[in-house]
Design brief:
By secondary structure, this protein is mainly alpha-helical. It has 7 helices and no strands. α4 crosses α7 and α6 packs across α7. It is rod-shaped and about 110 Å long.
């Protein structure tokens, strides 16, 4: 009834006509992507690029494998620093300019209310931290040196605090 002379069986066939073609197509569909992946990996890894932080490979390896905590051994019998030296090394960054609300060095108006609280309160604030100032205890200087810096700053603003003396050497000999 129709003029269509096409064979219906031929109309539904694909490009693969034999089992040999099917086998070759199956192998190619697995082998070609593998070679593409190998080529991409080779291309990416063959470039002479240094990884971030790898300019000194020994240093970067040492940083990656270092222990979390560290212990620093200091000479306990070293002479203690004067308040002015500690101020110049640790405190001047904020107290010279009055950064983050820190009372400026020798500013009588800013230091007055603090001085009235007493040396003990000032030293405790310095050691434990107050406001934007972080705790100074446990840093490069011991607590007596920090107290000396507090006395130096307070005395520059008119107080008459006495600089803390070094603790007397403990007598550890047994009699």
């Amino acid at each position: 009834m129709s003029d269509n002379s096409h064979d219906h069986h031929e109309a539904h066939t694909g490009p693969v006509k034999t089992p040999k073609q099917m086998l070759l197509l199956s192998l190619a569909s697995f082998i070609i992507p593998v070679f593409i992946i190998i080529g991409l990996v080779f291309y990416v890894t063959s470039a002479n690029k240094t990884a971030p932080g790898a300019s000194d490979s020994e240093k970067s390896v040492a940083q990656r494998i270092q222990k979390i905590g560290s212990i620093e051994v200091r000479d306990a019998n070293r002479p203690l620093k004067a308040g002015e030296d500690v101020y110049k090394a640790q405190c001047v960054a904020c107290h010279a300019a009055g950064a983050a609300g820190a009372p400026k060095f020798a500013d009588v108006a800013a230091w007055g209310p603090r001085i009235k609280q007493g040396l003990e309160t000032l030293v405790t604030s310095a050691l434990k931290g107050k406001g934007a100032m972080g705790a100074q205890s446990g840093g490069d200087f011991n607590d007596i040196e920090i107290a000396r810096a507090v006395v130096y700053m307070a005395n520059s603003a008119g107080s008459k605090f006495e600089e803390p003396a070094a603790p007397a050497a403990a007598n550890t000999e047994k009699k």
